Structure formats: structure tokens, C-alpha cells
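Whiteboard transcription, Tuesday session. T.W. wrote the C-alpha cells on the left side:
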């Protein structure tokens, strides 16, 4: 296959967010906010910073707020203008994508991440594409997706972002079997979805950032069920190994699992400490709490 630039991203956002009930009863979990931006916006901003121009959200029922978030809001914008709230207006304008740059498809049944990606097959076509799982936030100097896009250019194959996890947590993630390894890029020789610690081929786990060649769709079409009786993306990716280059990238940065309450709370602190307008105040209240528990 001749090399094609990375321009497309798929955002699987059909999940119910049961771990955050009642917050997510009538609001998509991807609208949960870290500091003052919803998770979905972090994912879109990160992808745009990597040169991605076209987006497909794989949604389900009750996810309209996600689509509205990227739409023009005439009333709000006119009101802000009339009140000369220019900073707020700019924040909204920065959000706006090119007309037609965002599309949605529905995943009618929760059959797994692999099935969600397959639902975006018409959008993906014959192009390489990124996947960003908005639950995973990455704080880094260079946006994580930019790091993956660079690795994709370098290897001209599929690349997944990876981190080492404690050996007793392999059953929560897709895990790599590794070949040659230069400390940054690691050759993937096998992939297993959520193996028990005793069966895990390593403790290098996939986080929610992928760049994949479109050939993965051919394997997803078979709709084979894997771990949890779901159609697993990891299983389809495993079948690509040997046919095209496949690497894991130990990215620079820290990942926060915002699908989990503790990870979400930690992200609030870490991201607010990065904000010049908030950092001093956050540091001050953290000191107060620390002195109280010390
Ligand atoms: C999914 C993938 C898994 C990956 C994880 C990253 O799992 O199936 O391979 O490691 O995302 O967050 P989920 O979190 O949907 O169970």
C-alpha cells in the first residue's frame, strides 16, 4: 500500500457510562468536564493538533449533547457578542470545525469496541485512521496523537500508544506480545485482550489512542466474538500482524483513565496545575488539604 497521510479519526462514544451514575443519567459520559472542557473536546483538540481534519463519532441514544457541542449556537453567540464577552466568544469559535468535518453513525447495539469501529467503515473507506477513546486523557508536551502520527509516518504501519501497567492489572487492557524494542517503539508480535495476569505475554498495555491501517476492517467484518463475548478491536488488530508493520509506542506523557473515578479526580488536579490562570490557587488549596490529612 502506498503511504497515505493521516486525516481521519473515529471517536467511539456509544458507551453508557454506568460507572459515573447518576452524573451520566441524562448526559453522555464524554461531556464530563476536566477543569472546563468536556472529555470529548480534549479528544477532538488532540486530534486536530495532529493534523486530523475529519471526524466520525460512533454514538448511541442520548448522545445528542456531543453533536451539539461542536455545532454553532446562534443564540449563545449573539448574546455573548451583544454583551461584549469576547473571551467567551473566542472559546466557542475555537471549537468550531470546518462545515461537514464531523459526522456521526449509530452503533445500534453494544457489541464491543471492534463493532463500534466497524460501524464507521464507510467513513474510514481505504484510508488510515486514528481512534481516540475520550475516557483516556493524556497530559504531554507533544499531544499523544501527534506522537502516534509521527510514528505512523516513520513505520508506515499501524501504531498503538502503550504504557506499562502493574502485572495484576493486565485483565483490564489489551496487552502486547513484543518483539524488537528500542525503548520507544516496540514491534508487536501478538495482542491479547484482557488476559489474566498468568496468561499475559507482557505488561505493556494499549491505551485509547490508535493509528490503524484500513485493512483492520476486513477482519472486523467477520464479527468474531472474543473476551466478554464482545467483538474486540484487539482481536482484529492481532490478525493484521505479519501482513503490515505493527508497533507500540511508549509515548511521552501521563495517561489518566477518566472512565474511573480516581483517574478522573487525578486528571482534574493534574490538568488544573497546568493552567496558568488556576495553578496558584489549586496549589494553595491542595496544601490546605494535605496539611489537614498529614
Ligand atoms: C478498550 C480496549 C483495550 C484497551 C482499552 C484502553 O477496553 O478493548 O484493549 O486497552 O480500551 O482504555 P475498554 O476500556 O473499553 O474495556
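and on the right, the sequence the group agreed on:
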Amino acid at each position: 500500500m502506498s503511504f497515505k497521510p493521516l486525516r481521519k479519526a473515529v471517536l467511539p462514544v456509544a458507551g453508557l457510562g454506568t460507572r459515573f451514575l447518576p452524573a451520566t443519567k441524562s448526559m453522555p459520559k464524554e461531556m464530563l468536564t476536566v477543569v472546563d472542557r468536556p472529555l470529548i473536546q480534549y479528544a477532538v483538540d488532540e486530534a486536530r493538533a495532529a493534523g486530523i481534519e475529519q471526524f466520525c463519532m460512533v454514538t448511541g441514544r442520548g448522545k445528542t449533547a456531543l453533536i451539539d457541542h461542536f455545532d454553532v449556537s446562534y443564540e449563545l453567540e449573539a448574546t455573548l457578542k451583544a454583551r461584549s464577552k469576547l473571551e467567551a466568544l473566542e472559546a466557542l469559535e475555537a471549537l468550531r470545525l470546518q462545515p461537514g468535518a464531523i459526522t456521526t453513525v449509530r452503533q445500534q447495539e453494544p457489541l464491543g469496541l471492534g463493532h463500534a469501529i466497524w460501524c464507521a467503515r464507510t467513513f474510514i473507506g481505504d484510508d488510515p485512521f486514528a481512534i481516540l477513546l475520550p475516557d483516556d486523557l493524556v497530559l504531554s508536551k507533544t499531544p499523544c496523537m501527534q506522537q502516534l502520527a509521527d510514528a505512523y509516518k516513520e513505520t508506515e504501519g499501524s501504531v498503538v500508544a502503550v504504557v506499562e501497567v502493574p502485572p495484576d492489572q493486565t485483565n483490564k487492557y489489551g496487552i502486547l506480545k513484543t518483539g524488537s524494542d528500542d525503548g520507544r517503539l516496540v514491534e508487536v508480535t501478538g495482542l491479547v485482550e484482557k488476559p489474566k495476569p498468568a496468561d499475559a505475554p507482557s505488561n505493556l498495555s494499549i491505551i485509547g489512542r490508535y493509528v490503524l491501517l484500513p485493512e483492520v476492517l476486513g477482519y472486523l467484518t467477520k464479527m468474531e466474538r472474543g473476551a466478554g463475548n464482545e467483538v474486540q478491536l484487539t482481536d482484529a488488530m492481532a490478525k493484521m500482524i505479519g501482513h503490515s508493520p505493527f508497533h507500540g509506542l511508549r509515548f511521552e506523557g501521563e495517561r489518566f483513565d477518566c472512565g474511573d473515578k480516581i483517574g478522573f479526580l487525578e486528571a482534574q488536579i493534574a490538568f488544573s496545575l497546568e493552567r496558568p490562570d488556576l495553578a496558584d490557587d489549586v496549589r494553595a488549596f491542595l496544601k490546605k488539604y494535605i496539611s489537614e490529612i498529614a
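Someone added at the bottom: The pocket of 1-O-phosphono-alpha-D-glucopyranose is lined by residues 113, 133, 136, 173-174, 193, 205-208, 233-234 (CB under 6 Å).
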